Amino acid sequence: MRPDALPRSATGLPPHDLAAEEAVLAALLLDNDAMNACVTAHLEPGDFFREASGWVYEAAAGIAERGDTITIPTVAAELLAAGRLDVAGGEPYLAEIAGRYFTAVGVEAHIRAVQRCAYYRRLIAAASQIAQVAYEGGPDPRKVRAHADGLLSALKPPDNKPILVHMGGNYADPVTGPAWGVPVLDRFTNGMTGGDMTIVGGHTGTGKSMAAGQIARSAASRGNHVAVFTFEMSARQYEERMASAMSGVRLWRRREDEELDRLAEAHMEIATWPLWCAEQSRMTVREIAAACRAAVVERGPLDLVVVDYLQLVQLPQTRESEATKIGQVSTALKALARELDCHMLVVSQFNRGLSGEMRGRDSAKQECIVSGEKFPVPFAEGLKGSSSIEQDADLILAIQRHGACPPDGHRRHAEMIILKNRNGPIGSCIALEDFSRCRFDWLTQEEITHAARGDTGLYRALMEDQNMYEGGPE
Fold this sequence. Notes:
By secondary structure, the protein is α/β, with parallel strands linked by helices.
């Protein structure tokens, strides 16, 4: 479509509703409780099309914030002090609109009309900027698209939901989400519930990304819509890891025909899943949000979003400290989970300095149920970057290897520990490491119980198959 053929309003002006704007101002002048409705709806002076109306609203808001009464004389005095009274129409204009509408009834509907038009004007402005960037073009269309997505994602439609809702609804059935496929999480949570954020933390080489991928695979294989943002590998590499885990074929070895057939079957199965993976090596949280919103529009609601990992998300270009910016990213990801009603699974590193301190404190260690060797237990405060990560998370799962046990020649294992559970108890489970096939093999509760009672024969038998473990961490 040619630019000169773009649709325009009948008046040639951007969307606006002057009558609704005046009705809102009249309500404020007639009933001080009307300001509560404006505050609840997050009405801003910039939402008014007529600039002078925005000034009147700003003056009324300032009066209310001081605890004074909003009247025609007090608003006029506020405008006079700001040097805007005459431009706004003077006190006669305020009296005219108050007399024209003479009631505050329906102010909520008028506020929505003002906000709706303001939203459409901002969309038009964003579209103009997008058109300008598209005209300029450039060698990389993806950057143009990312810029467009960023502009649009910054615009949120007016939220007309009340801040306070009446309790006592039909909440007999608890909110549940897709199963994790991790024993301790499936036991102590209601699944990957929408609006919540889980942090999977671990030190380098513990398999935190592998665990996140295993959870994503478990969810997608059950028909749940999953979007993965991994910044350490391509979508092809991510799929190869999944196929290796599913087929039992190691990543690094010469493959026989039978193994290639198993891999092909795994890839064909993955192709049937509602699973998508981002290709970019670095993305801002705004770009992640834009991609998720686009996926919802194109393919339907998302159940799970995986970000691997938090410290590789491109930080805002501001003067704040790195810890502050990482905290802003964490808070934004949590807000995105609430907005899309999906579960946010975020991989995060632990602080190396605190790791050394942890290894040196016997009080922060537990005994392995197999060998009795002590291993350090991580703590939520050790998450790298910002204390906001711990605060934003509804669930924190830490992965800690039992480095000193079992003896050489046996499969190594790790403990999956819930450090924080906003909606339930904490606990742990043990998994055998199989880095060669990009997966953890979870031990059953019965196997753990046998080991805890001293009957380690069954437990050790699971680890003694030399062919099941080759190589080190991811």
